[in-house]
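To make this tangible, this section ends with a sequence with its structure tokens:
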Amino acid sequence: MRDVLDELLAWWRAGEQVALGTVVGTWSSAPRQPGAAMVVGVGGEAVGSVSGGCVEGAVYELGEQVIGSGAPVLQRYGVSDDEAMGVGLTCGGILDVFVERVSPQDFPELGEIAEDIDAGRPVAVATVVAHPDAAYLGRHLVIRPEGEEPAGTLGSERIDHSVVDDARGMLAQGRTGTIEYGPEGERRGEGMRVFVASYAPKPRMLVFGAIDFAAAVARVGSFLGYHVTVCDARPVFATRTRFPQADEVVVTWPHRYVAEELAAGRLDSRTVACVLTHDPKFDVPLLEILLGEDAPDLAYIGAMGSRRTHEDRLARLREAGLSEDHLARLRSPIGLDLGARTPEETAVSIAAEIIQDRWGGGGEPLTTTRGPIHRHGWVEAAPSI
């Protein structure tokens, strides 16, 4: 929903009735992840995408029906359906799309949810997308971190209690997905499916070294959806003018900055760090913290430099007491071998390595590989709907 929130909120504030289609489950090579959304708006306008173009026409027609009836619908599209070729999902995947009507009457909590997302406050929205009793479909429960009361209800106190516990765990990890329960919220039951959309703050990208390569990495990082911080101890280089697409430009020694952020709990398993200074007086104390015994469990740590610089850096880190296990976490020289030369090309190679680490890709040309193109981190059978 995040991608279409501005348009959705504008119609909601105007009191209009629109349809929101959300991907709530994917299997095999489905082109979009759970949470991808499309809005069928006023005057026939469509915003967003649920499949990259494969089934948008079918979802649009379903959205118009839902606006008229007000009854939510969970629809499966994929090669297992008789209508697969009719809707055009030729990639071989399966996706479940939940289509619901949205208006101030249907979804009164949307305004506060939008405020949380805009302010970077963690919030999750749980929606009943399948249930033996159609009266439960489309019910929403808004979940915030421990200590804050949920808003709305999924139909009973028992259901709400079960979902709140699970959704808070998903929110803490920034995970979005579907959980199955019994009709009354029984754990390990089946019959009710609840889609939990987590809106955690953006993952962080830390870029160290105020150089031209850092400016290109900051641009790519912002494009990929990261909250980008550029850090350098030299105020003449670390300026907003040089890094207009960074969310923050911090002038301090990198190792001091990381120590402060770590102590404040602002680094997590989604954070990526790109060390681009290739200067031992900056790199070594910084990497000692990023790779040491008390290091945060970051998603990615990469360091720029030639192979000679890399070997020298490793020797200095070993002298500082880092073990081979610690050093194995470092991606250096940084980036995939794309033959990159310019700052922009190098930024693409770094981004490619970050994406590869995130999803477990091999980095080979797709023309030389077999099997699913899209990686989801796990494989599960598609439930019946």
Remarks:
- The chain has two domains: 2-199, 204-359.
- The first strand starts at residue 18 and ends at 27.
